Amino acid sequence: MGFILIKGSADRTGGGSSSNVIGEDSRMDLEGQQTKKLPVLVDLGKGTCIPCKKMKPILDELKTEYHGRAIVKVIDLRYEPREARKYGIRLIPTQIFFDAEGNEVYRHEGFMDKQSIRMKFAEMGVY
User: Fold this and answer.
1) How far is CA 17 from CA 2, 21, 122, 125, in A?
2) What's the N-to-C CA distance of the chain in angstroms?
3) CA 53/CA 46 separation, integer angstroms
4) For residue 37, what is the DSSP state?
5) Alpha helix (H) ranges present in the chain?
6) What is the pLDDT of residues 70-101, one digit of tens each?
7) Can you tell me the distance from the alpha carbon of 48 to that of 25, in angstroms, rounded to the nearest whole number?
8) Measured between alpha carbons, how far is 72 from 74 in angstroms, rounded to an integer?
9) How many other β-carbons are positioned within 10 Å of the β-carbon of residue 56?
10) Is the backbone of residue 37 left (phi > 0), alpha (psi -120 to 50) or beta?
11) Nearest to 126, CA basis, from 87, 100, 93
12) What is the pLDDT of residue 113?
């Protein structure tokens, strides 16, 4: 499968602040669009993991396909390691879908094919 365990990742069952809402920093303008008004897919991985590499062209296509209707954001944990803790990442790649209000509605660990991502967006009302 190609999963990678993230050392020191946050325990999602412990106390502390909820990780199911995008933080204020992440709610800022992404690629010229307000994420507060659009659903968001955040893909967290590393450019060195094989499933992450396989997802890159898919995510690039989806960024274009859903432009103006949803945000597709890729976070490379090699360069932004704190994001693993922020989002409670245990395995990579992980895809997290947020609704237009910033609430987490779905999380998937591992490779996610284009059709599955499209289906999840459709369930969220994004066509």
Assistant:
1) 30, 10, 30, 28
2) 29
3) 8
4) G
5) 50-65, 82-86, 114-123
6) 999 999 999 999 999 999 999 999 999 999 99
7) 26
8) 7
9) 15
10) alpha
11) 100
12) 98
pLDDT at 81: 96
pLDDT at 28: 34
Tell me the two tokens of residue 17.
């602040």
Tokens coding 87: 């989002």
CA–CA gap between residue 88 and residue 34 (Å, rounded): 24
How high is the pLDDT of residue 4?
Answer: 54
pLDDT averaged per 10 residues in sequence order, the chain, 127 residues = 50 37 41 66 97 98 97 97 96 97 96 98 96
- Torsion, Cα 99 104 110 111, to 10 degrees, reads 0
Residue 53's SS3 state is helix
State the catalytic residues: 49, 52
Write down all domains in the chain, each with its CATH number in brackets. Answer: 4-9+38-123 (3.40.30.10)
